[in-house]
Amino acid sequence: MTKKYSLAHLSMIEVPPIGLVRAARHAGFTYTGFRLTPTSSGIDHGVLGNGVAIRELKSAIDDSGIAVLDLEVIRIKEDGPTADPMPLFEAAEYLGARYVITTLEDPDPVRRVGSLALLAEQAAEYDVALSVEFMLFSSAPTLQAACESVLATGASNVVVLADVLHLVRSGGAPDDMLDYPARLFPYVQICGAEGSSPAPDAAAARAEAVTARLMPDQGDLPVREFTECIPTGAILAVECPLVGLVNPSDPGALAVDLLASARRVCE
């Protein structure tokens, strides 16, 4: 079966969503996804809540033939989502996105499952699913923690978003994914990085995730083994913020390089 790839927005976060669509189409990606909420560094492309901008983005998507895999991000803390999730759900429904990426940042395991379950009910009203990303620097630091929280909701529209970098840095291995239902992994994220050991601490894991990734076929992460442990047909999202290594002044060329790199290691 031919593998399908998505161009994750974090790979070129400075590029506005319409530019990302064009880059994905130029390179031959099947999907892309958009960061529509502001980043921690203050990047905000001004699409969410902007009727004109979102209609222009929808038109660009329709013209390109690129499908939308996911939107980012809803953060669940002690009091639930940090912002009203409805605008993101509405955007997902309008743009045809399959998933909204969600992070668990509430240290109380019972409360965060309840919040996630309620959010899943709300997402279902828009025919959208949630993908819960685990990261060492969140309250779901491991694959096990994320899977347990997702399964505890009993919701069919909540899945786990596994990133090979976060899996390895949290002490996991690719075949750990085989311990859980295949339905939890409809798509995953891939990148490269130096070294294949767990991160020394959460701060180091966060810093690397933001500033020290490599192309998928570079470095020491077990990317091929990772993709061999996911369900047949799972989508591969290429998330490689190449800070200081690549000038994204030509998003199309960068997208071509990212997809070629992913194919070299995954095929």
Class of secondary structure makeup: alpha/beta
Q: Which strand order does the major sheet show?
A: 1-2-3-5-6-7-8-9
Major beta sheet summary: 8 strands, parallel, barrel
> Taking Cα atoms only, what radius of gyration do you get, to the nearest Å?
17 Å
Rough outline: globular
Number of helices: 9
Tell me, rounded to a whole number, the average pLDDT.
96
What is the chain-wise order of helices and strands? EHEHEEHEHEHEHEHHEH
Total strands: the figure is 9
Helical content class: 25-40%
Strand content: 15-25%
Unreliable residue runs? none
- Give the termini separation: 11 Å
Q: Topology of this protein?
A:
Elements: E1 5-7, H1 17-27, E2 31-35, H2 51-64, E3 67-77, E4 80-81, H3 86-95, E5 99-104, H4 109-124, E6 129-133, H5 143-153, E7 158-163, H6 164-169, E8 187-190, H7 202-211, H8 223-228, E9 235-238, H9 251-266
Parallel strand pairs: 1-2, 1-9, 2-3, 3-5, 5-6, 6-7, 7-8, 8-9
Antiparallel strand pairs: 3-4
Helix pairs in contact: 1-2, 1-9, 4-5
Q: Descriptors for this entry?
A:
alpha/beta; 267 residues
Summarize the structure.
The chain contains nine helices and nine strands. The chain has helices at 17-27, 51-64, 86-95, 109-124, 143-153, 164-169, 202-211, 223-228, 251-266; strands at residues 5-7, 31-35, 67-77, 80-81, 99-104, 129-133, 158-163, 187-190, 235-238.
Walk me through this protein's architecture:
With 267 residues, the chain is an alpha/beta fold. 37% of the residues lie in helices and 17% in strands. Strands 1-2-3-5-6-7-8-9 form an eight-stranded parallel β-barrel, surrounded by five helices. Helix 1 runs parallel beside helix 2, helix 1 crosses helix 9 (251-266) and helix 4 packs across helix 5 (143-153). The termini are close together. The model has no long low-confidence stretch (mean pLDDT 96).
